[in-house]
Protein: UDP-glucose 6-dehydrogenase
Organism: Penicillium cf. griseofulvum
Amino acid sequence: MSSLIDQEFDSEAISSARSSVPTSPGQSLDGKDGLDDGLDVMSTSTRTTVGDDSDPDTLVGPRPIRSICCVGAGYVGGPTAAVIAFKNPQIRVTVVDKDERRIRRWNSRHLPIYEPGLAEIVRIARDGLRDHLTPPVSTNPEGIRNISEGHNRQQEGTTTSSRIPNLFFSANVSKCIRESDIVVIAVNTPTKMRGSGAGSATDMTAFEAVAADVVQHARNGSIIVEKSTVPCKTAQMIQEMIAVRRPGEHFEILSNPEFLAAGTAIHDLLHPDRVIIGSATTEEGKIAAQTLAGVYAGWIDQARIITTNIWSSELAKLVANSMLAQRLSSINSISALCEATGAEINEVSASIGMDTRVGDKFLRAGIGFGGSCFKKDILSLVYLAESLGLNEVGEYWRQVVTMNEYQRNRFTSRVIKCLNNTLVGKKITLLGYAFKKDTSDTREAPALEIIKTLLDENPGEIAIFDPCCNPYVIESEIRQLHGYGPPALRDDGGAVKVYSDAYKACASSNAILIVTEFDEFRNTELVAVPRSSLPPGHLPLNKDMHKSSKIEASSGTGSAIDPLYVACAEENYHTEPDCAVDCPDCQRENGSELVVGKLRDNLPKRQVDWERIVDNMKTPKWLFDGRCIIEIKKMTQLGIRVESIGSAGF
C-alpha cells in the first residue's frame, strides 16, 4: 500500500482529519504510558552509521555528510535548506514536496514565499556561479547589492570562483529520502480542529504521514531530524515506527527545532542566537548530534550550538514561542490601560525596555500576534499541561491567547464606534494583510479576523493593499470566507477588493486601518539613531528612531535589516531558468504594478505619500494605527483624525 505522502502530500496544508498519533505526553502508539521511559531507548544499535550501508559496528564516530533531504518546501523547509546548501557547497541538499506547483516555483524565478535575501541565496545555491573577474569594490554602500556575509568582499582585480549547484527541488519524495544521509522533516503541525484535544492538541496528521514515509524509504544508518514543532515524545513515536517496520536496523532521531521569525528568516539562519540539537543520551545519539552540528559548524560558532536530551529540545521550542507571545500579550494589556488613563504606550514600553532585566524586545503594542506558530504552540503547551493534570499551568498560558483575541476585537470595536457604529455604504481600507512586515506569510494573520468582523457591519467596500503579498493569494484566502456567510470578494458580489496600488486602495476611503507595520506605511524616515547619540535621560522613543522625511529613492537599499552582503557582479550568475510560455506567475507579474518577491530586495522602500492619500479621502477622515508606527501629531496636521493603539485618541 502506498504511503500518504506519495498520494497527495502538501507540506503546508492544514488538515482537519483526526490523527492516530498520540498527542498526550505519556501515550505511545500502542496506548501504553511512556513518560518515564529512558532516553536511551531512542537508539537501536551500538554504533552510528551515517550515509553508508556498511556494517554499523565498524563505525564509531561522526562521518562527513554528502546529502541532505528536507521534506517540506514551505516557510521553514525552503529557507533552511537554502542556507544549509549555501553554506555547505560540498553537500547536496534536496527539498521535496508533493505539491508540484510549489516545486515548480522553487525551480523558477517566482519563489513561492518572500523573505529578504532568500531569492539571492537560492539563486547562488540552486543555479551556481561562474568564474568572473570582479571589479574593485566601492566603499560607498549605496547601490551595492546584499547577498551574504559568507562571501568575503572581493578584492580589486580578483576572480570570483565558480560554484556548481548543490540545492535542488523535487517532487520525487521517496527517491530523495533513499539517497540521503540526513532526512529533515519540516512540515506543518497545526492545531487539531476535530476529535480528541480539538482546539489545543497538535494535529500530527501530516507529520505522521511523512515520518512513516521516511521510515519506509530511508536507508539503514540515516539520521532523522525533527525540524517541525512537535509535542514532547514525538521522537519516541518515530522510534516505535522503526521498531515495527524496520526491525534490526539502526536510525538516530534528533530534534533540531527552528527559531525563525517571518521577515528575518534568512538573518536568523545566518546569525542564530542558538542552534539546539536534542538527541538520545546514548553514545550513538551523541555522535549523531555531533554529525548534525558539523553541518552548522561551517558558519555558526560552536558556542552557539547547544546539545540537549531530545525531550528538552522538543519542549524548548514550545516554551520559547509561548514566552515571546506572552510578552506581546502583556504589553497589549497595558495598552488598554494607557487608552483609559492618558498614558502613552510607546513611552511606557521605552521606559521599561531600558531596564536590562526586561529588555526592549517584543514590547511594541499592536493588534495582536499572528503567524502559524505562536498561537498553536501556546495551545500545545496548554494541552501538555492539562494532560499531565497541571490545570493551573494550562489556564495561565491560555490567557495569553485570550488577551491576544481581546486586543484584536478591541481594535475593530474602536473602528466601528468612531464611525458612528455603522459602516453601511462606507469604504474601509486595510494597509497590510500579512501578519508582520517583510514577509508574504498570511497564516493566522489578524487581518482576516478583522475583515470578518467588518463584513458583519455591511460596509460599502473593504479595500486591501499589501506590498509583499500576491493579490491573488489574498483573494484566494478571502474567498474561503464564503463558507462562513455570503460571498466576500467584490468579484463574487461581496465587499472586499484587493488592490496592487496603495493610492487606489485608499481613494475615497472613510477610514484607513494600518494592520501590518510595513515601513512603507510610516510617516517617518527609517534612520536609526544610536542610543549613544541621545541626550542624557532621553528615552529612545519611536519618533527618535525615524526622521520625519521620506526615504530617498536613490539609497538603493532593499531592507533596513538586510543581513547579507556580497560583491558578485551580475556576470557571476547563471541565467535563471526559463519559464513556460503559459507561466501563470509571469502573466500575473506582467499585469500587476505590485512589487513582490526578489524584486523588492533590490528596490528602495518608498513610503506612501500621506498628504496625497489624505487629500483623496472622504470627510471626516479617520486613520486607525493598529501597529503604533504613525507619528500622530504630524498626521493630524494633514487634517485626519488618528486613533492609535495605546493612545487616548479623540
Q: What stands out?
A: The mean pLDDT is 83.
